[in-house]
Amino acid sequence: MAEAIDIRELNERIERQSAFVTNLMTGMDQVIVGQKHLVESLLIGLLSDGHILLEGVPGLAKTLAIKTLASLIDAKYSRVQFTPDLLPADVLGTMIYSQKDERFVTNKGPIFANFVLADEINRAPAKVQSALLEAMQERQVTLGKETFPLPSPFLVMATQNPIEQEGTYPLPEAQVDRFMLKVLIDYPKLEEEKKIIRQNISGEKIEVRPILKSEDILEARKVVRQVYLDEKIEQYIADIVFATRYPEQYDLKELKNLIGFGCSPRASINLALAARSYAFIKRRGYVIPEDVRAVAHDVLRHRIGLTYEAEATNVTSDEIVSKILNKVEVP
């Protein structure tokens, strides 16, 4: 009985402390038409302290979404447009010799911001990609002999364009694994498209004012860590991830020849973190199986390696995740 009371008390506390989510969503809705899933994914990344990889054709408000989020939170935003001739120093910064002081001074790059948009990340050569990914993982940058911590919160949202192959460098599997979520963005619905046209031809600029401080996000993260995750849910998450590695143990023999390699333990960790954040966004103090299912595709799709057979028969990792979710027993 004590546990039940604890959960009720936790639920009430989380409902109070997650009130800002509604304000953030409303603020995003004023600027971005539709794209609910994109907005939710950004919030999950922000609350879980994870980075996001977005894939979608140009013009689907990927840049606008992160810019709006940064404006709603009083935080520093920077954008790096990736090109084949970009150098690591263009992202991280460099040491510049000052004649006046007769010494080298640090010139910090655009990575020193709370929200960094890495636009078209697959356009930059491997050297730049790895420099960015090191900063994402270690939350610090070394320039010369000095190491500088990156600000907190620190969220990288990288975009990639799936339709162009010329002049692009696909991200290797090990690097893609560093992103907590890979979100696919689709075209808006017909009604939304009409609203987008109306908004853009009216000529009115919607002014976005900050409603939160960076500290509020750091506080919210502490609360998200208190969201209750039952052992049965833990088991469910572990089963889903294990089914990507050993499908035959879960009566999914047909997937064995389609999966080149399964998900790493990073997938399990991120699935648990994302499910917690999703429960928080839905203003609940505990995780239910539906929360895990809601985030599973975004967390797992870039962590499953497909075989040539899967590619030849046009099987996608999304279809594999769906089959696993349909088969693994829900607690």
TrEMBL record:
Protein transport found in the keyword field: no
MF annotations from Gene Ontology: ATP binding; ATP hydrolysis activity
Task: Report the residue ranges that make up the ATPase AAA-3 domain in this protein.
Answer: 51-181
Do you know which SUPFAM superfamilies this protein is assigned to?
A: P-loop containing nucleoside triphosphate hydrolases (SSF52540)
Q: Which UniProt keywords apply?
A: ATP-binding, Nucleotide-binding
Q: Which InterPro entries does this chain map to?
A: ATPase_AAA-3, CbbQ/NirQ/NorQ/GpvN, ChlI/MoxR_AAA_lid, P-loop_NTPase
Protein's UniProt keywords contain Nucleotide-binding: yes
Q: Where is the ChlI/MoxR AAA lid domain?
A: 259-324
Family as reported in the entry's similarity comment = Belongs to the MoxR family.
Q: What is this protein called?
A: ATPase family associated with various cellular activities (AAA)
Organism from which the protein derives:
Phocaeicola coprophilus DSM 18228 = JCM 13818
